[in-house]
Write a structure and sequence with these properties.
It contains 25 helices and twelve strands. The protein is of the alpha/beta class. The chain has four domains: 169 residues, P-loop containing nucleotide triphosphate hydrolases (Rossmann fold, 3-Layer(aba) Sandwich), CATH 3.40.50; 61 residues, Orthogonal Bundle (Helicase, Ruva Protein, domain 3), CATH 1.10.8; 122 residues, Zinc Finger, Delta Prime, domain 3, CATH 1.20.272; 105 residues, GMP Synthetase, Chain A, domain 3 (2-Layer Sandwich).
Length: 532
């Protein structure tokens, strides 16, 4: 019976695992010294060797003929473990056995010593899928396991593993497999399987696998039945992605703002049953390459992911557009890819994105909502009108106090006779502001960088924001501030509020803002010729 290549060529020893030497060497040293931990946590993206290393570790610690930290693969324990018939190495899939009852069964069985091996080992794959109750049931036995018991947990989503579990494990982070290591391994497998794999074909498979060896070997297996020679073109056709020529045709059409050409190429690819989501991903990758060439031209060769003969074409495209446009296009493509995953008609989504990419990028990619700006300008216009109609104040400093009432205190000092030295700083003013933010955040925001001083039962508030005085004149705002001061300071005060901003300067600032808005072609209700 035919066996899939990814299963047939799964590594059997630590030496066969690629791009994870920082982990395999540590595990080998632990095994040789006999200082293995009772619990391990392997984390990383798919296809990087987590479950494979867990199986090798389970065999190695139990192998009676261990060789340099690796299992011998010849004894009965190694053979039965590889066949899955060894009862002392138990693999659980947490995706389908994630309930508390499953973990209780595991815990009940764990009290029995191993039948043939030195250690009983539980390998729990996708451990993040366990329920909270299951994690709680697992916690106690992981905290104080019998000396013969070991756990190896594997997950692709480490953030979902509770800290109480992770803290009891030795954690190892598996990296994405490097493309050059993956291409070398694919070439070796192809030679052993008598497959004709070209260097560019191996590089293309490694590039599409995105750091996952299992995906790479599966794609090699798929390509092996499509052509006698597995080249980059074979891989592109098998994977359903655009050939490189089509890809650069689209990129050049986008750069030249040639929407008809981009749509024509897309139509031909669609008729050839090309996967448009894959095409979008390829465009994202190449747009990223262009971005890196623009941002770091000297080191781009080591940062980008492309075939060697494509670098010059990418540099030529990078010279035609500024970095801002490249980043805007990249953002639009990423949004398109996200929408395509949910859309019923992926072709429409992709074509809409192409039309936007070929148009005015700055306005099409980023639509500015002027509604909030317009509302602010309308408020400023009203303030300017009121300021123009009102008589000029005698002083440049605006003052206000809280509204009176039967429960309002009366000043117990002569405010007009006060000297600056008579007013003492309010030491708890920051506490008052912190409490006021919880009660009335809108008004509290206008008190940023404000100061307060106390003389008798009068508290003087000096705000840098001129709008605070206008807000304070509203009764509900003054009452809420007075109540907050009472809760923090323990007594009622007569509140005097002022702004240090000159009213004429305040008006000029508002007029200047309106002027800038008019010059920016934002609609306002102020007449350009008004000299108020």
């Amino acid at each position: 019976m035919y066996k899939a290549l990814y299963r047939k060529w799964r590594p059997l020893t630590f030496d066969d695992v690629i791009s994870q030497q920082h982990i395999t060497e540590t595990l080998k040293n632990q095994i040789k010294s006999g200082k293995t931990a009772h619990a391990y946590l392997f984390t990383g993206s798919r296809g990087t060797g987590k479950t494979t290393c867990a199986r090798i570790l389970a065999k190695a610690v139990n192998c009676p003929n261990m060789k340099d930290g690796n299992p011998c693969l010849e004894c009965d324990i190694c053979r039965e473990a590889e066949e899955g018939s060894l009862t002392d190495i138990i693999e659980l899939d947490a995706a389908s056995n994630n309930g508390v009852d499953d973990v209780r069964d595991l815990r009940d069985a764990a009290v029995y010593s191993p039948e043939r091996c030195q250690y009983k080992i539980y390998i729990i794959d996708e451990v993040h899928m366990l329920s909270n109750a299951a994690f709680n049931a697992l916690l106690k036995i992981m905290e104080e396991p019998p000396p013969y018991l070991k756990f190896i947990l594997a997950t692709t989503e480490i953030h979902k593993v509770p800290a109480t579990i992770a803290s009891r494990c030795q954690r190892y982070d598996f990296r994405r497999i490097r493309q050059e290591d993956m291409a070398e391994r694919l070439t070796y497998i192809a030679q052993q399987e008598s497959l004709s794999l070209t260097p560019d074909g191996a590089a293309m498979i490694a590039k599409l696998a995105d750091g996952g060896m299992r995906d790479a070997v599966s794609l090699l297996d798929q390509c092996s039945v499509c052509a006698e020679e597995i080249s980059a073109e074979t891989v592109s056709a098998t994977a359903g992605i655009a050939g490189r020529g089509y890809l650069y045709d689209i990129l050049e059409a986008i750069t030249d703002s040639d929407a008809p050409k981009a749509l024509d190429v897309t139509a031909r690819l669609y008729d050839m049953s090309k996967d448009l989501m894959r095409l979008c991903e390829e465009l994202i990758l190449q747009m990223r390459n262009i971005m890196l060439i623009k941002a770091s031209p000297d080191t781009a060769g080591s940062l980008i992911s492309c075939m060697p003969d494509e670098l010059e074409r990418l540099r030529a495209l990078a010279e035609k557009c500024p970095l801002e446009d490249v980043m805007s296009r990249l953002e639009l493509l990423q949004e398109c890819r996200e929408r395509m995953s949910r859309a019923m008609n992926k072709r429409v989504e992709f074509e809409m994105a192409l039309i936007r990419l070929c148009g005015n990028v700055r306005t099409s990619v980023q639509t500015v909502d002027n509604s909030e700006i317009f509302d602010k300008i309308k408020q400023l216009e009203g303030m300017i009108g009121r300021a123009a109609a009102a008589p000029a104040p005698a002083e440049k400093v605006v003052t206000a106090s809280s509204p009176g009432g039967s429960d309002q205190p009366v000043p117990n000092i002569d405010i007009r006779a006060l000297k600056p030295s008579d007013i003492k700083p309010c030491e708890k003013w920051e506490e008052v502001l912190e409490e006021f933010r919880k009660v009335n955040p809108a008004v509290a925001s206008s008190l940023e960088e404000s100061q307060a001083g106390i003389a008798g039962n009068v508290i003087f508030i000096t705000a840098k924001n001129p709008f605070f005085v206008s807000l304070f004149k509203l009764k509900e705002n003054a009452l809420s501030l007075g109540e907050t001061i009472f809760r923090v300071l323990g007594q009622k005060f007569v509140i005097k509020a002022r702004s240090t901003v000159n009213p004429e300067k305040q008006r000029s600032m508002a007029e200047e803002l309106v002027k800038k808005a008019i010059n920016s072609s934002i609609e306002t209700a102020v007449d350009n010729n008004n000299d108020q």
